[in-house]
Amino acid sequence: MTVVRAIELRLIRLPLVRPFRTSFGQETERECILARVDTDDAEGWGECVAGPNPGFSEEFNEGAWLLLRDFLAPALFQAGETRAEDLEHIFAFVRGHPMAKAALSNAVLDAELRARGESLAAYLGADKDRVACGVSVGIPPSTEQLLEEVAGYLADGYRRVKLKIQPGLDIERVAAAREANPEAALSVDANAAYSLGDVETFRALDAFELLMVEQPLDQDDLVEHSKLQREIRTDICLDESIRSAADAEAAIELGSCRIVNIKQGRVGGLGEAKRIHDALLPRGVPVWCGGMLETGIGRATNLALAALPGFVLPGDTSASERYFLEDITEPFRMDPDGTMAVPGGPGIGVDPRLDRLAQCTLRTEILRKE
Ligand code: NPG
């Protein structure tokens, strides 16, 4: 049991090493909220995976900030003595907003684990101390650039390269990437940009022996995804459609996908992420850990999750240098064998560097328990 005395919200902005373009927009910098909680015994950190615009999901930074400040923080202060596992219940009066909830829940869990000297990976039930890494390639301006990026990442040792696609920038680009890298583990991610009418595009993609095609259709299209999965050979992986363990079970039951991408920061935090994992493990459904261009705080959290037994495919747990010239924590590095160490220290196992935080902070606000 612990009492949260103060919560610091911090909006930060870090330039990306290269623009990240998807079917729903382009980011040249990562702007996100960090939550730090102070308890009597320890501090804890959590990262909100929302971005500046509601393009990927309904959530966005300014909305998340208000929600954290005006609803979640007061509820946490009012609850008094709490355990991290009670927070889902305490926050249940707010409908939705899983990204904002995850930031605060993860910060409280981090503080609790630091106080008792337990690592997040051990707490979650990890069965490995290194995880296999994949990498996600945004949509570059030209096919030449795409091939160059893919070649660079494969040379680095990444065990899977995911290509973002959108209508019109799909079959030819994937064909070129496959031709240049006949043996590589390649996948594609459409970020919900297609409809069932595009089935011929996905039939054509079947020729390239992709590991999976991720989120081809709209997030609400579970039935349409099941129809598409029946029409194509390549495994469908769902991301945006899976907001809970119930969604995951429905998707598998319907045959809407055969693989699931679990993003703890998007589904409301580690509690729901673990429930999705636990629901899919006995069904033998492979899962992997997604990414949202996280800083070292969110990356450490993701790595602990990716160390659970059901995470059998390489995740978007790439090295810090793939995203930022300088991260806010010590950089996460990938070994040439394409694996990365899971932090083993108390809590998430990393601390932000205060000098770096100061450089990239746009705004802070400290909220205190009365
Ligand atoms: O390696 O963190 C990463 C990026 C992986 O492609 C990635 N993320 O659609 O899954 C996605 C995409 C994303 C990034 C979505 C940022 C929203 C924001």
Oligomeric organization of the protein chains? single chain
**Total number of strands:** 14
Bound molecules: N-succinyl phenylglycine
Secondary-structure element order, as H and E?
A: EEEHEHHHEEHEHEHEHEHEHEHEHE
Provide the spatial order of strands within the biggest beta sheet. Answer: 6-7-8-9-10-11-12
Give the number of helices. 12
> What proportion of the residues is helical, as a percent range?
25-40%
User: Sheet with the most strands?
Assistant: 7 strands, parallel
* CA-atom Rg in angstroms: 20 Å
The stretches of 5 or more residues where confidence is low (pLDDT under 50) are none
Question: Any chance you could write out the topology, listing elements then pairs?
Answer:
Layout: E1 2-22, E2 25-39, E3 43-48, H1 61-79, E4 81-82, H2 87-90, H3 98-116, H4 120-124, E5 130-132, E6 135-137, H5 143-156, E7 161-164, H6 171-180, E8 186-189, H7 199-205, E9 213-214, H8 222-231, E10 236-238, H9 245-254, E11 259-262, H10 270-280, E12 287-289, H11 296-306, E13 339-341, H12 354-360, E14 361-368
Parallel strand pairs: 6-7, 7-8, 8-9, 9-10, 10-11, 11-12
Antiparallel strand pairs: 1-2, 1-4, 1-14, 2-3, 5-13
Helix pairs in contact: 1-3, 5-6, 9-10
This protein binds N-succinyl phenylglycine.
